[in-house]
């Protein structure tokens, strides 16, 4: 046995093989040369050598040993042909060393590559992952990718995108033997009629590692900023989504491996923009690519695209998970709001729609214990004041924040309320704010003062006539045409000077109903005024005003 296994070979520092020098040298020209050099250097009969970076490691060398010890015979399959081929190239197992050597056998097997089944090509291509550099340098990866693309074009409607090129050196062909047609390079895929959202080959090709996918996209001339294909963009998004799901279960690959693919996908998305992708779809894209280390340039481009459509977003869209201590990515939303606010041609309707959305978002993120006041205000104040016709939603969010953060100081609570426009608070919201013990008294007083002008203006409007409200009702019922300035005048389609016969019967009924509603509103305002007076009296009795805020010698405002 000792004479039979007279040599040791250490493979990649992982495993040692005891082999017969003569048997292996019969088939491998490189091993024969290395062993001779080692014998001459060491001058020891039983010596050994170390081989680093052997394709496939110990598994690859074991296959080679079986081939040599079986007198140059081994069963070649789609699963092992790639490894055997790369090992044969690495060890120089050519016809010069032995007839019908391993390299020739693998090349013969690969000649039928285009007749293989679709699954067999993918299995063979995936097997190259552990020795991809050798498979790539030997040209094997290009051959396999060529077969993959041939299958896709033969069995789908994108055959016009990829065409087999001639062997002419002047043709713009890729290393895989394929070139991209002129229509593919010049026309965005979004303009093509047969672009399906998910092709039949997406799931199958997604089993391949990212480096091979990069080679596939590069062979089509659509990598990075050259990507103008919608179907390839959708495939990359699908591939990244599947890869993100795999990352949760196992962390075998780093995010940096997918960075180039993510950038390529985003470039394709930005190229077609909102013509193809809705606001919700763009948020979906953002969620997928955010975990793959995309470049700053493409991230900003995607955020600009989403920010310009922010009025179409929903609350669920904005609730993107945070990467820091916070539950949600508030910084992202602030950037999107600022992009939207600076966009040209934003109508008042879109602005107010976005304002209502942001108020809902504030209410949703307020319970987060890690949400700082600066972030809350950053969201609330990113939109201009005109984006809200009512600040009730902002007040509700502040109330939730104060409830969830009970340890805030007086100054912090006052600072939080600075985003409110008290004049745009409804009467009900103002009542709640004045009674809210978490709101600083100075803020409550400012809100009440702002409401006083509303109450006074309404009272002056309603009591403009010297008659009582009831007499005003009789006045409208009789359709008086007095021109006195102290009376309220109704305008209809007939003009100011129309007589009572020009008032339709329906208009008279509407007038009565409107007047009744006005009377009820006056009663509510009077009741609110009395409540405000009582609230102010209590605050004065408890010396709240003197202890909390300086009066500077000014008298208390008269509310009613």
SSE arrangement:
Elements: E1 7-11, E2 15-19, H1 21-27, H2 29-42, E3 48-51, H3 57-69, H4 81-91, H5 102-110, H6 118-126, H7 132-137, H8 140-154, E4 162-164, E5 178-180, H9 182-186, H10 202-205, H11 210-219, H12 230-249, H13 259-272, H14 279-289, H15 296-307, H16 315-318, H17 330-342, H18 348-365, H19 373-380, H20 392-404, H21 410-416, H22 427-435, H23 441-462, H24 469-477, H25 505-541, H26 544-548
Q: If you had to describe this structure to a student in words, what would you say it looks like?
A:
There is one protein chain. This protein has 560 residues and is mainly alpha-helical. The chain has 26 helices and five strands. The chain has a three-stranded mixed sheet with strand order 2-1-3.
Number of helices: 26
Portion of residues in helices? Answer: 40-55%
Strand order of the largest sheet: 2-1-3
pLDDT < 50 stretches: 159-196, 461-505, 544-560
Task: Please describe the structure with a list of short key phrases separated by commas or semicolons.
single chain, 560 residues, mainly alpha, 3-stranded mixed beta sheet, two-stranded antiparallel ribbon, 26 helices, 54% helix, 4% strand, disordered C terminus
């Amino acid at each position: 046995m000792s004479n039979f296994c007279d040599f040791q070979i250490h493979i990649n520092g992982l495993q040692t093989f005891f082999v017969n020098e003569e048997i292996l040298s019969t088939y491998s020209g490189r091993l024969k040369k290395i062993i001779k050099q080692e014998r001459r250097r060491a001058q020891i009969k039983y010596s050994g050598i170390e081989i680093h970076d052997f394709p496939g490691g110990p598994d690859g060398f074991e296959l080679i040993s079986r081939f040599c010890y079986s007198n140059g015979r081994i069963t070649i399959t789609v699963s092992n042909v790639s490894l055997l081929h790369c090992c044969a190239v690495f060890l120089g197992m050519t016809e010069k060393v032995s007839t019908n050597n391993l390299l020739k056998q693998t090349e013969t097997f690969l000649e039928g590559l285009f007749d293989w089944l679709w699954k067999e090509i993918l299995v063979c291509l995936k097997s190259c992952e552990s020795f991809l550099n050798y498979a790539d340098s030997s040209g094997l990866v290009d051959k396999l990718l060529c077969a993959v693309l041939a299958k896709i074009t033969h069995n789908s409607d994108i055959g016009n995108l990829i065409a087999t090129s001639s062997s002419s050196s002047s043709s713009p062909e890729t290393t895989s033997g394929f070139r991209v047609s002129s229509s593919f390079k010049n026309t965005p895929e979004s303009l093509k009629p047969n672009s399906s959202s998910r092709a039949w080959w997406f799931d199958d090709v997604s089993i391949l590692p990212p480096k091979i996918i990069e080679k596939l996209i590069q062979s089509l001339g659509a990598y990075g900023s050259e990507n103008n294909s919608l179907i390839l963009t959708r495939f990359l998004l699908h591939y990244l989504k599947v890869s993100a799901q795999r990352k949760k279960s196992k962390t075998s690959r780093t995010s940096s491996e997918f960075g180039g693919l993510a950038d390529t996908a985003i470039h394709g998305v930005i190229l077609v923009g909102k013509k193809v992708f809705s606001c919700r779809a763009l948020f979906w894209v953002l969620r997928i690519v955010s975990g793959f280390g995309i470049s700053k340039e493409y991230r900003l481009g995607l955020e600009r695209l989403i920010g310009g459509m922010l009025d179409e977003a929903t609350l669920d869209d904005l609730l993107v998970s945070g990467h820091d201590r916070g539950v949600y990515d508030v910084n992202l939303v602030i950037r999107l709001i600022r992009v939207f606010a600076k966009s040209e041609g934003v109508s008042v309707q879109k602005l107010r729609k976005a304002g209502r959305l942001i108020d809902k978002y504030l209410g949703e993120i307020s319970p987060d214990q890690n949400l700082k006041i600066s972030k809350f205000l950053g969201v609330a104040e990113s939109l201009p004041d005109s984006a809200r016709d009512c600040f009730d939603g902002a007040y509700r969010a502040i109330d939730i924040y104060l409830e969830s953060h009970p340890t805030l100081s007086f100054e912090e609570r006052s600072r939080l309320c600075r985003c409110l426009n008290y004049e745009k608070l409804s009467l009900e919201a103002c009542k709640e704010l004045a009674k809210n013990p978490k709101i600083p008294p100075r803020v409550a007083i400012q809100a009440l003062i702002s409401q006083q002008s509303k109450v006074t203006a309404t009272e002056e409007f309603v009591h403009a006539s010297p008659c009582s409200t009831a007499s005003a009702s009789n006045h409208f019922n009789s359709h008086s045409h007095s021109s006195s300035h102290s009376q309220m005048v109704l305008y209809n389609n007939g003009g100011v000077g129309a007589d009572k016969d020009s008032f339709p019967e329906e208009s008279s009924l509407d007038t009565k109903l409107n007047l009744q509603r006005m009377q009820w509103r006056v009663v509510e305002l009077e009741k609110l005024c009395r409540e405000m007076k009582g609230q102010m009296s209590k605050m004065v009795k408890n010396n709240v005003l003197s202890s909390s805020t300086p009066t500077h010698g000014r008298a208390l405002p008269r509310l009613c």
